[in-house]
Structure formats: C-alpha cells, structure tokens
Amino acid sequence: MMKKVRLGIVGLGAQGGAYAEFIKEGRVNNMEVGAICDVDPEKKAVAEEKYPDVPFYDNYIEMMESGNVDAIVTCVPHYLHPEMGIEALKRDIHALVEKPAGVYTKQVKELNKFAATKPEVTFGIMFNQRTNELYQKVKEIIDNGEIGEIRRTNWIITTWWRPQGYYDQSAWRATWEGEGGGVLVNQAPHQLDLLQWIAGMPKKVYSNVKYGYQRDIAVEDEVTAMFDYGNGATGVFITATHDVMGTDRFEILGDNGKIVVDDSKTVTIKRLKKPESEMSATMSMQDVMEIFMGKGPGEMYDEEVIEFESVWGAQHTAVMENFAANVLDGTPLLAPGSDGINGVALANAIHLSSWLGKEVELPLDEDLYLAELNKKIKEEKSE
C-alpha cells in the first residue's frame, strides 16, 4: 500500500515553488515531492540547490512516464491546465489542476469528459477557499435553509490590487493569448467558485467590464456583473485590481435572514424571528413606525457573529492533503476537478456579455465565446 503520494510539480514558479516548500517542510503529511518539471533552464539550478534529491525534467510527459510520480499539480499558464490534466489521467496519473480549470468552457468540458472515463484516477482542483471553515459554515447555513430561500447575493471583492510592475513581469501575463483574461481568470476564480458553490449558478448574466481601465493591459481590471438566478433572485459581483484599499464583503439575503461576510474573517448571521413575508403581511403600521423609529433589532432577529483565523498556506496544504487522502484511501474530495467548469462558465459569461453588450444566458454559447476570444487574441497580435 502506498503511504505517501509522490507529487510531480509542473512549473516551479511562485505557486509551484510554494507547494514544493510546503511539502519539504512536512506540512502535507501524506505527500512527498516525486519530481519537478520546468521548461526554464534557470529553474533547474534552483531545483538542484533547494531539492537536490528530487529528479528534474524539462518535459512533463517524460516526468509522468518516469515512474517517479503518482500525481501532478499544474502550476502553468491557464490554457495548459486541461491539456496537462488529460495527459496525466491518460497515464493513470492523478491530476490536481490549478485554478482556473481552463480559459474557456469548451476545453474544460473535454477535460471533464475524459476524467469521467477514468473514475478510478483522482481528479481535483486547487479551490483552496473551500477548505476555509468560514465559507464551509456559510454553505452549511444556506444548505440547512436557516435563512430561507436566497433573494439576493452581493459580493464586492476588490482586494486584488496589482501595480503595473506586476503585469510587466512577463510577456504572457495579462494578455488574451497568454492568460486568457485578467482579474476574472487570475485573481477572482476562487470567489466565482465559492459564489456558485454556496448560492448556485445563475441563469443569466449582464456585465459592465473595463479592459485596461487603470493599468496598461489588454485584459480586464474592473468588473461589475449582475446575475439573474431565474427564480426572482438576483446577484451583483464586483471585482478590480486597482483599488489599493480594497473591500471584501459578501452578503446573502434570504426570506428568513441575512449573512454578511467581512474580509473573509468575520461572519454575521441575522436570523429573523418571523419570515419577512409574514412580517409584511401581519404588521400594523404602528409596529412599522416603531421599527422606523429605532425599535431594538433584537425583537426582530437574533444575531450571531463568528470570527475565523486564517493561516497562510494552510488552505492550500489542506487541499493537497485531502487530494492525497482521496488517492490513498478514497476520502471524498473537497474540490472535485469536475467542479472547475462552473467558475470558468461564469467568467466566460461575464466577458461575453460585455463584448456583445447584452445579457447572456447560461449555459452559454461555447463556440461564440471561443470565436470572440480568438478575435481578441488576433487584435492583440496586430497591435
């Protein structure tokens, strides 16, 4: 019986380097670094110095066929995630795909379709925020029906400030050809995943997106999107990379209460003593006047405030540990790889709505999206 999963790290950049360090430090107790792969010759010298006993490859197929790895993690540009995932699964190598699962749903669908033919091979995605106890608690409250049916979601997440120098680090960054988008595919996929994980997928999306608004880039750095969930409920999602002060506030309003998450650290749960519809139908105008005049909220709802602590890297290592546990003993995955398509679909719909200047329906027209994306890539090349 395998005791530890030997992980092949594809791409020894910032993320791949962090994972290698986590494992080296013993923070993932059921995993070891089996091999490292990078096409950059300079990374070979880095790997030899930091991980002298770990085999190094410049071709990930060779690494997977070497017998040195049981699984891979794809710390490479987004377009490559589906292709590498498929190549791993083909060889019965377990695949942990970085977020996003891909740039467009058509390629992610291919990955999911192939993965479905290999149910015995583990396929996960690095949605580390799903291991965050705060968001697990929010999902539990929604799933239990504690605040009733959702009426509205609002998430403003502008804590992704990035200076121009960040984008100038490499030629592929913040380009349609290299990265496939901006804040929606680089920084905010975690929130897009959490939003659909907790509140479900919308039926329609309408967006106002700014491309190169406050940064000299081709892709989006400012997004305002409106969701229609198809049952009367609506949502608003706002994200940006130019707000140096940043806000992270997620509100979910239900028939029987409200959840407010501040800075991904504090959850305030307000549970109404009577459903809002009942209050509306039964309250006298005198009762209403008392509320307007500042009647104590304690008479209308109970309030619970929960604080959560965050430890850097702990969420990533938790996903890695859970992934390895699934390989070793079948522990259920917190973030199944097949879930990755939902966040990509949301990002695609937000882009497409802004490109077409109209509301788009989900599931979206995948061929139309790809055609429009290819137009952006062509325009970028001709500039």
TrEMBL record:
Pfam families in the record: GFO_IDH_MocA, GFO_IDH_MocA_C3
Entry's Gene Ontology molecular function annotations: nucleotide binding
Xref: InterPro entries: Gfo/Idh/MocA-like_OxRdtase_N, Gfo/Idh/MocA_Oxidoreductase, GFO_IDH_MocA-like_dom, NAD(P)-bd_dom_sf
Protein name: Dehydrogenase
Source superkingdom: Bacteria
Domain Gfo/Idh/MocA-like oxidoreductase N-terminal positions: 6-120
Lineage start: Bacteria, Bacillati, Bacillota, Bacilli, Bacillales
Start and end residues of each GFO/IDH/MocA-like oxidoreductase domain: 135-259
